Amino acid sequence: MKTRHKVLIVDDEPHIRRLIQTALGRADYATVEAGNARETMERLREERPDLVLLDLGLPDRDGLELVPLIKKETDATLIIVSARDATDEKVAALDLGADDYLTKPFDTDELLARLRVALRHRMARGGGVSAVTAGDVSIDLMERRITKAGREVHLTPKEYAVVAQLAQHPGRVITHHQIMMQVWPSENERHVEYLRVLVRNLRQKLEDDPQRPQIIGNEIGVGYRLHVSPE
Question: Could you say which of 80, 87, 136, 176 would form a disulfide bridge with 221 (CB–CB 3.0 to 4.6 Å)?
Answer without folding.
Answer: 87
